[in-house]
Amino acid sequence: MYRYDEFDHAFVSGRVEQFRDQVTRRLSGELAEDAFKPLRLMNGVYLQLHAYMLRVAIPYGTLNSRQMRILAHIARKYDRGYGHFTTRQNIQYNWPKLSDTPDILAELASVEMHALQTSGNCIRNVTADHFAGAAADEVADPRPYAEILRQWSSVHPEFSFLPRKFKIAVTGAERDRAAIQVHDIGLHLKKNDKGEIGFAVYVGGGQGRTPMIAKKIRDFLPEEDLLSYTTAIMRVYNLHGRRDNKYKARIKILVHETGAEELARQVDAEFAQLKNTELKLPDADIQAITTYFALPPLTERPEGWASLAGWKKADPDFARWVQQNVQPHKHPDYGMVTISLKPIGGIPGDASDSQMDAIADLAEEYAFDEIRISHEQNVIFPHVALADLEPLYRGLVAQGLATANAGLITDIIACPGLDYCALANARSIPLAQEISNRFGNPDKQAEIGELKIKISGCINACGHHHVGHIGLLGVEKKGAELYQITLGGSGDENTSIGEIIGRGFEPEKVTDAVETIVNTYLGLRKDSSEIFLDAYRRVGPQPFKDALYGGSAQEAA
Amino acid sequence: MADKVLTANRLSDGISVWLDAAGNWVESLQDAFVARHAEAVSALEETGKAAFADNKVVDVNVIDIEEVAGVLRPLRLRERVRAEGPTIDYAPGYKGLTGPVQAA
Fold first, then answer.
1. ipTM higher than 0.90?
2. How many contacts does A have with B, using Cβ atoms within 8 A?
3. By its UniProt entry, which InterPro entries does this protein fall under (chain B) (predicted)?
4. Residue A489's domain spans which residues?
């Protein structure tokens, strides 16, 4: 993985000391809140319902054991013994004291981490496929490009005060696991006929109150033009993006109002000025960064095949876990392991300090010290020998981390919701817990198959409900919580925005409604290979509306 | 007019607090001073502005509450969650706002 150079160290440490001074002056009263608030936000410190919240960046979701141990240490020493991994591949702490935040940032800096650009109208943490570097369907590892974008965008003076926040995602695989079409810029690494690497460029996707699927404005951008073309997009957005209305300020609105064709023309005009400037990426620089992301020494471990067969036969629970949570690696003797942070009835994305320490230990022992955080709020070990799966599994079982539900109905994405968030209108976590308990039986989950439920506690859609196969949006109606259901959303290479199915459901009725939807699907699917999303796309909303509302006038209400 | 209390978050650690009758910021809504008429609400608002200006608290708000069987209860769910803490058992040994629960 990328290692800081002297400049990086000096820069991050300098920012910590700058923030320490700002916090000291705030606490002494020298700085007023109005002056301080933008400064704390630039360092990832929010104020939520019960306390401050610190959002720490995990660049493209990649970290090592040393960093994970510091995350555990921070949870233990400065917080309440846990952290929350987010849909942006970051981690949030829910209870830090403002007075402790400079020390926390110093601890993070000691392992090359920070909280910069995790808030504010700037380019946020660049996200990537969590199976990057390991997936069999990958053209190239997206992380070197994500790292190049991270370096370029860090405190970029021109792009630190954009009309609104800006999110970039990169994938290098055919199957899109980074949801690039619902990002401000989505980059899809590909090869052209000559075998050269470049990007399909998507612009103007996003969720929130106005969900939009990104438009492809470039089919093949040579890799050397990555920064010049991205700069061109940013300049067009910075100039023409709306600043009069916060809710219309994201680039998706600009793309929508301008039209993708005209926007692409404007970007091309800027690009023509930038193409052969200092922004052109020298091949040597790309190679230098790529070296940081080289595969670990994956020696031949063919003995794993026989061992695995024996272990699976001996232990059905292990077999189920392998079936659900281990994906084929590009090297046949290895697998990509999903460590579920969705225990049945648990809080999606939360991990205790001891679990984080255990993950760090297990990564060192069995996974070449490589850890990823997925946007689905799970932990990934991208490189594990099949021969090591059983001992790894035992280690995970001991920590309550071996739930065999990756991609199943209980692998629910949920934002913090009204239990923590100052913006939320309704709770997300208790609903996730109730649904998880309702469908927690392993046989039932297996029968239902792949089904992605995503829950947001407000229209800002941090829980990605728009792209849930079943999306649940919490709203406040007459002072109480109400959950609106959308069906048919998807955040993969065939992205779609879910359709609102009818009137919302009260908290005590919404899990029953989800069960009705699931039962309707089970009754109409062609066979068990037709997953929920495919069945929904085939039959449309009507059978589900009929099941939920009985054809009554209620659905329109 | 609904009864009202003054709430905020403490500057140094962000913890939710309410203003009591002695003018202190306390960690329990149940200890808050309840304003039951317009003059008292005005006084709360003035106190809030002064406390914000004095850099003791942030995010200062007057909120509506009701008193049911001697227990103060905010009318909005958001404020009830603020007063009682997360409605989930979020970490081993923790519940609600107050941090570690006593071992049984």
1. yes
2. 87
3. DUF2849
4. 413-556
* DSSP β-ladder status, A82-85 and A350-352: antiparallel
Find all residues with CB under 8 Å of A360, minimum gap 6, and list them.
Answer: A65, A66, A68, A69, A72, A371
Cβ pair A81:B94 closer than 8 A: yes
CB contact under 8 A, B77 and A476: yes
A399 touches B at CB < 8 Å: no
Do A307 and A417 sit in the same domain of this protein? no
Q: Check if A32 contacts B (Cβ < 8 Å).
A: yes
Which CATH number do you get for residue A345? 3.90.480.20
Q: What is the mean pLDDT of chain B?
A: 91
A179 shares a domain with A104: no
Reported as a single tens digit per residue, the pLDDT across B42-75 is: 999 999 999 999 999 999 999 999 999 999 999 9
Assign A120 a pLDDT band (cuts: 50, 70, 90).
very high
Helix or strand holding residue A103 (H, E)? helix A101-109
What pLDDT digit, counting tens, does each position of A424-476 carry?
Answer: 999 999 999 999 999 999 999 999 999 999 999 999 999 999 999 999 999 99
Same domain, residue pair A430 and A532: yes
Contact B86 A480 (CB under 8 A): no
Q: Can you name the residues that pair with A271 across neighbouring β-strands?
A: none
Q: Is A41 on the interface with B (CB under 8 A)?
A: no
A430 and chain B: CB distance < 8 Å anywhere? yes
The residues pairing with A414 across neighbouring beta strands, listed in sequence order, are: A455
Q: How many separate domains does chain B show?
A: 1
pTM of the shown model: 0.96
Residue A117 lies in a domain: no
Q: Provide, for chain A, the percentages of residues in helix, strand and coil under a 3-state DSSP scheme, each rounded to the nearest 5.
A: 45, 20, 40
Domain residues for B48?
A: 3-84
Which chain B residues touch A81 with a CB distance below 8 Å? 91-94
Which H or E run contains A220?
Answer: strand A215-222
Tell whether A124 is covered by a domain.
no
| Any domain includes A487 | yes
User: Tokens 């993950």 map to which residue?
Assistant: A359
What average pLDDT is seen over chain A?
97
pLDDT in tens, A143-173: 999 999 999 999 999 999 999 999 999 999 9
Is B97 part of any domain? Answer: no
- Indicate whether A425 and A312 sit together in one domain: no
Residues of B with CB under 8 A from a CB of A: 9, 11-16, 52, 54-55, 58-59, 75-78, 81-82, 85-88, 90-94, 97, 99
Mean pLDDT on A305-317: 98
Tell me if B77 and A420 make a contact (CB, 8 A cut-off).
Answer: no
- The position carrying tokens 């006038």 is A553
Beta partners for residue A484, in sequence order: A473
Residue of B nearest to A423 (CA): B78
With a cut of 80, say whether residue B93 has pLDDT above it: no
Same domain, A105 and A233: no
Q: Which residues does chain B have within 8 Å of residue A430's beta carbon, measured at their own beta carbons?
A: 87-88
pLDDT at residue B104 in the model: 37
Residue A119 lies in a domain: no
CB contact under 8 A, A418 and B77: yes
What is the torsional sign of CA A551, A552, A556, A557? negative
User: For a pLDDT cut of 90, what percent of chain A falls above it?
Assistant: 98
> Which one-letter amino acid corresponds to residue A121?
N
Residue B101 scores a pLDDT above 70:
no
A42 & A149 share domain: no
Asked whether residue A48 falls in the same domain as residue A159, the answer is no
Find chain A residues with C-beta within 8 A of B99's C-beta: 80
The larger pLDDT score, comparing residue A52 to residue A554, is at: A52
Domain assignment present for B92: no
